[in-house]
Amino acid sequence: GEAAAAAAAARRPASDAPKPRRSDPRRDKPRAKKGRAGPHPAASSASASASAAAAALPAATTLHLPDTRAFWAAAAERVPAAARYDARRVEAAARGLEGSLLVAPHDRVEWFLALGELMAIGDEATRRHADALALLPRPAPMPVAYIAQRIDTDDPLWGWQVRHAASGQLQGFVTLTRFTTWSADFAWDSSSRESGMPSARLSNARLRSGEPYGVDPLSHTTSGEGLAEVARARGVDVAELVNLNKDLYPGINSRSKLLDGTRIQLADPAVADLDADCSRKDTPRTVAARTRLPLDDLLAINAARFSGGLEADTPLDGKPLLLRDRESEVDLPIRGVERAGGAEPPPPMPKGKKKAGKAGKGRGEAAEPAGLRQLDEDCSLTALLAQQERRGDPTKDGVQWTRIAEVGLLASLGGGGTLVRYALQRLKEEGHYHFAVCQATLAAVGFYERIGFRRVGARARYAENREGEWTGYRHWAEADERTVAEFGDTSYLMALDLREWSAGPALELPVADEYPAVAADAKAPDLRRMSYEGGTLAYESGDGVVVSLVPVADGPPGSEPELRMDVTYEIESILSHRGTGRKLEYLVRWVKWPNPTWEPWTHLVGSDDALRDYAARSGTVVTWQRSHHKQKE
After folding, report:
1. How many whole angstroms from its chain centre is CA 366?
2. pTM of the full predicted structure?
3. Which of 137, 297, 380, 540 is deepest in the core (most CB within 10 A)?
């Protein structure tokens, strides 16, 4: 990974050890955003694996080795000495967290020391959730780099760990912070196509019009059959299926066997999603009335297709409107029972709506259709968010939305709803924050809806010169705005107005002042995976990622140092290179990552062994001189 910057201030006296920040976590001033220590080998994966890096790590002063060793020894005394247990055998927490207790870590150091447990419980919670609901596709757990860098960058940072009262084993955790944006151009917006909200509202409208949930007439999700069998079952010529899917699945042919869960296109969406009944006299308003779709959302997804502009009463002259925006749709995981013909129970209805009684009896409205998502349908919640106070510089400390709290990290082996409600009740009771937001993983959308969150929209412009195109906001995606397109899709942002939220009965959960002793399993490895080397404590994930907590001083001389996380990835080998000088790049194969990636030479500073090995194999001589990289062949 990238080497630490050269020391910019005199070393502090040997008696001074690095100290974590200990002021009130909910009133603490924001920290400068940390730069990425190394390249992210999963650059093309979803945004759950994204990094929060934006700028180079500030000039650092690393403390004397004896100081850091003493500091880590003192820090380790605050938490259990080891965490030897198997996450697969941890007892699930009760729905109301009976038999569990909460521990509020004092600072980032305690969160860092528990990083191995956080990873193990996060992975296990994802596995149990996917198994219980037979979700397809199976959701991916949070990567270690994402968890580590959220703990490092979120400021202020507070939250709770849920531990079994008897065994002390971790059962869940939640972190909260102040909502912060890092984009030069950011806007709360649920009206634009880029936000994804018009597409979501159109999906809800189709469900209200009777379209069956989880059924797409233009595609087929396989379950053991081959392409020829799909063609026979759906009455489509197999050659046509090959032609429709050859770009999605290179090499597909009429004899192809397909993995379970493969989505096969049955028709061309660019044609099938057009309004087939369009006439020359139609306008967007008449199409909306005929199709029972919201007019404003039809205008939003079709505006770019009409160069002369598109208004509600613009004559279409026979040019059909697009009735569905598949490019912006979110493909939520589908329960296995739904594939067998069942349906997901609908999420709770918004406040004020009631279900109809049996056989048409009762006074309330009819039950809403299965699969309906809770959205900011009228854009009112988004408008309130846009009016909130914010301050800061996106190129330095970020823009802090002072009245908006964010649920940063969440995982639970049961009782997750109670844990989040407890956290939100504390926010509502204190009164400082008026709103809570979260970036929901697609498998957790229904969970947050049951608590009262609704999806909202936002967009941003990612470009150094602020002249780029507006796109859907990618919260906590790659902050290198030049490569934002490589890092996932538009975030599924959800929000809740704490002032209007029906919090339910007050939750009183046991909060311990100290960590309970952790019952050890002699046959299990220590989940902590901590090692002390070179003056820092490091967590080794076992999958090629190493997270170190490094004391640095980025303030004026004499100021107290901070602890910052440094994420690096282990190189398996260097395969090739291209370019010269500042444009020199290496093709790197990473430990336990499937695909190699091209990386600029600056990402390999300090990786001397790998570079020497590549030089010996390829005949390329690489030398390092100060901050300049020279190549000779």
Report:
1. 35
2. 0.78
3. 297
